[in-house]
Design goal:
single chain, two-stranded antiparallel sheet, Rossmann fold, Ribosomal RNA small subunit methyltransferase A, S-adenosyl-L-methionine, about 270 residues, seven-stranded mixed β-sheet, Helicase, Ruva Protein, domain 3
């Protein structure tokens, strides 16, 4: 039985339709599912997080390899998952991913709701993980992987590349989903970046990067001057002192051209 036919039967059995408000587009391409599972390099010791488990097609493939923590917001789909999936290696959390306290896990394999992609990524990056295989809209993946100087390069690019080594490993055509999304999707693999030089306070570093990118088209000197409130409240220094501390950096360089390693060095110097 194809996954699309199975989906239609489940829709009839549990009386539901994809909810546009929740950005529900169910993945029904078995080859894509297998590619994501294979890319995660799973073994029986892994604990995998899945965000937006939906109808459980990806979940049950993950269960063949390891324990799964599946989070689902939709109450009807939670009932479906409880009834249709094996329970011996599944922890099902019915709730809002952005609000629930995450249990321990080391890997992530998921096709999360696209409309909250950024919020999901920020929460995952702050939590930390060994490896993730995620499907997002093509435009969003470009933001995760963008390099300095490209229009898509921003705070999220820096934070993603600070914590991980992102790599696009495949594309997903709209026909792989029901209903079809308007744009194409990409599969991105994120492996933990074991960098030697780390920010002394990672959560504050995240906020520092976000603050500077509020002034992405200004040079570093002007961006620091425009961030006086952040510097004063969070780092306890004035803008003049901040510029003096960063005198060895290229103060005329635009924020959008600053590399990840430079952001780390600047933050640690100011901290």
């Amino acid at each position: 039985m194809s996954l699309f036919i199975e989906l239609t039967e489940l829709m009839a059995k549990y009386r539901f339709r994809p909810r546009k408000k929740l950005a529900q587009n169910f993945l029904t391409d078995e080859k894509v599912i297998q590619r994501m599972v294979t890319a995660a390099e799973l073994n029986e010791k892994d604990k995998v997080l899945e965000i937006g488990a939906g109808t459980g097609f990806l979940t049950r493939e993950l269960q063949k390899h390891c324990s799964v923590i599946a989070i689902e917001y939709d109450e009807t789909l939670c009932e479906l998952l409880q009834n249709e999936l094996a329970k011996d290696n599944l922890e099902l959390i019915c709730g809002d991913f952005l609000k629930v306290e995450l249990p321990d896990f080391n890997k992530i394999v998921s096709t999360p709701p696209y409309h909250i992609s950024k919020k999901i990524m920020i929460k995952l990056l702050k939590h930390g993980f060994e490896l993730a295989v995620l499907a997002f809209q093509e435009e969003f993946v470009e933001k995760l992987t963008a390099l300095p100087g490209f229009p898509q390069y921003g705070a999220l690019s820096v934070l993603t590349q600070y914590k991980t080594n992102p790599k696009v490993i495949g594309k997903i055509e709209p026909k792989a989903f029901f209903p079809k999304p308007k744009s194409r999707s990409r599969i991105v693999k994120l492996e933990k970046n074991e960098r030697k030089n780390k920010a002394v306070d990672e959560l504050l570093f995240f906020r520092f990067v976000e603050e500077l990118f509020r002034h992405r088209n200004k040079n570093l000197s002007n961006a620091i001057s425009c961030s006086r409130e952040f510097l004063s409240k969070k780092l306890g220094i004035g803008t003049k002192q901040g510029i003096e501390i960063l005198h060895s950096f290229e103060l005329e360089k635009k924020v959008a051209l600053i590399e990840v390693e430079e952001f780390i060095q600047m933050f640690n110097a100011l901290y």
